[in-house]
Every structure is written in structure tokens, then in C-alpha cells.
Amino acid sequence: MKKITSLAPGRTCLFGDHQDYLGLPVIACAIDRNIKLTAEQNNTNTFVLNMIDIDEVRTIDINAAFEKLEPRDYFASSLRVLRRYGCVPNTGYNITITGDIPINSGTSSSSALLMAWIRFLIDAFGVDHEVTPEFLSKLGYESEVLEHGEPGGMMDHFSIGVGNIVYINTKEPFSYRIIGTGLKGLITGVSGVPKETIGLIGEIKGNALMSIGIVKQNFPDFDLHASKIEDFDRYRNCLPDRLIPFFEAALKNYHYTKEALKEFEKPVLDLKKIGELMNQHHEVLRDLLKITVPRIDAMINAALRAGAYGAKIVGSGGGGSIVVIADPQIEDSVIEAILSAGAQEAYAVNVDPGVRTIENIEIKK
Predict the structure, then answer these.
(1) How far lies 135's CA from each of 114, 119, 145, in Å?
(2) Degrees (nearest 5) of the Cα angle 150, 151, 156?
(3) Is the dihedral of CA 158, 162, 164, 165 positive or negative?
(4) DSSP code of 239?
(5) Of 290, 329, 289, 291, which Cα lies nearest the Cα of 309?
(6) How far apart are CA 60 and CA 39, in angstroms?
(7) What is the pTM of this model?
(8) pLDDT tens, residue by residue, 2-46
């Protein structure tokens, strides 16, 4: 009888929110809040999933083909994707799932659950492919985004699958590289306001792509990847007023992400400089893309007043969480300030090495 335990971390986006669907780069990192999946073979034909934190039990037939997918049913879509790679369940498991990643907060609890599930399935039933962090990340992306036709990008799956601090180049040909394994003074604050993912991303993505399309019609040589902030004035006049902020946001966010990459590539990190870039990035998300809510703004202002170097909203927006960078010596007072500003939770986090199996043993019954 097999017992397998897999673990997948949450993630936070340091730079590049609302960039990956434009083919622009992202800097993200896995954080040491995680989803843990413990599975014991039960010699039946069913997976019995006990999701303790949401008080839900689900039973899945190991032979189910899932010809029709329910929205956001990632257990089903990943089984469908994995079958194509030769991972075919042949026995059932009783599975217990627990975690300490806040749900619907912009720190990728759903992607972490999916990645822990994929890691378990491969350990239990094998797969016709070399199992690398990159392969696991691609499986996550296929299962969550492609299979469901959702508007998300690859950031979540690669942050969790590859771990560490990762620079993700989302344009074709896609590539990534680990640019750090630790970042001192990292804090997450959870607003308790549920984020609004799919509608918000779809709308902002649509407007951003439309603005870039209009610029390209008027300036056929325009290349977003070669663009600079100072180009903005040259192009803005061809855009209708309502689309100008989306185009400006794309240029500015791209610029701050490139500047941040230069900082991460230095042998000693200048937290203050990274924090300043984070603040500039947040201003774009707040003032141009307008994805913040009053509680998020209050948490960020409180963190900065308490002496943090930088802070920004994370993810699609409309609620969710913030990431803060501060001198590690004042972490406690920054956390206190974020909580007093109305946060549901705030805590220091460390960079995590990514999805992994922590136990794979035979148990005697």
C-alpha cells in the first residue's frame, strides 16, 4: 500500500501583474505558505478527496474520462491532460488536503492545489516524460488555462513548479530562469476582499490588446518588446481617450519589470531600490488600470508609513492581497500597521523551492 505526500507553495508576483497575457515578462516567487496533499492507497476504483479547510468531500471514479468539463474543475482537467501523457490511474486513494494559503486572495491557492494534485498523480501512476520542474509547470498551465479556455497566463504554474524567484519571459519562445533563492523582508498582507479574477483580467486584457493593435495600425514598426517609457507621447495621440491608460500601463509596467531584473541580477540586493520600483509599479496598477480597492490602498499606505521600502497589490486585482518589502528589522511593526489598516491577515514569508514530494513510501496494512 502506497502513501504519498506532495506539497505545493503559493506564489506572489513581485513585478509584471497584467503583463503575461501581453507576452511581457514577469518576476514572481514561490512563498512558504502551501497546500499539502496526503494520499493513501485504498484499493478501490475511487479517489476520495477530503478538503478539510473548505469542509468538502469529493469522490472521483479513477476511470472517469470527463468528456465535458465543469468550469474551474481542475481535478478533472488535469486527469484529462495527464492521460494524454500516459499517466493512467489504476487504483484509488484516500486523499486529505490541507493548506495555509488564504483562498481567493491572489496568492494562487487554486494553482497550488492543482500542482500538488499533479505531482501526486505522477508519483502514483508514472508518466511518459522526464519529470522536470518545467514539465510540471507546463502540465499545470495546460490543465488550468488551456483545457478550460481561461484568460490567465503561465506565471502561477511556473512560480510554483520551478520555485524560488523566477524571471518568466512569456513571449514565444517561452523561457524562464531562476534569478534568486531568497529575499529578506518579504511580507504578505491579505485584504479579505475576494478578488475578481476572470472578468477583470478579460476586460483589462481586451483593452490593452486593443490599444496595442491601434498603435500598430498607425505605426506598423511599433514593437511592444522594444518599447520604452519615453515612446508613450509619440503614440498616445492615435488612441481614443479611454484606451490611453491601458497602453501607458503596458509600457510603464514593462519598464519597471526590466529595471527590477537588473537589480535582481546584482550580487547584493538593494531592497530599497527594489521597493521603489515596486511602488512605481503599484501606482500604475492603482491609477491607470484601477484594480485596487479602498482596503488594499489603506494597507499599502500603512505599510509605507511604517517604513516599508515598497508595496503593491498582487494578481488580477479587485481585492486579494499585497506584497511588501521592508527592512527585516522592522518587519513586526510593518505587519502590525497592515493589520491595523484592516487586513484580515499579514505575515512574513520566505521564498520557497517549489512543488515537491515529501513522502513516497510503502505502508504495511
Answers:
(1) 14, 11, 15
(2) 90
(3) negative
(4) S
(5) 329
(6) 14
(7) 0.90
(8) 999 999 999 999 999 888 888 899 999 999 999 999 999 999 999
